[in-house]
Amino acid sequence: MLETQRGAAGHDLEKPIRAIREISHDLTCRRRVRLANGREASALEIQSSTSTGRCATPRPRAPAQEKQALAMWEQSCRGSRTIR
Fold this sequence. Notes:
The chain is mainly alpha-helical.
């Protein structure tokens, strides 16, 4: 299942509760939050990186619905990057 797989490396949040609160109030998904490694990233950057990594390495014998969900996730991330 998609939910059981680890996210993109390096995207652990420094203060997850605060970051989720800040991100949830940002409709543009561009507000930057601090990561555990000291870097900063926006929700859109985290989602794009995670989806790219997940789509590049799909599970062998993944169900068709999972492959479709990954493709739709990556497409929505690409579309969100073009909206300013």
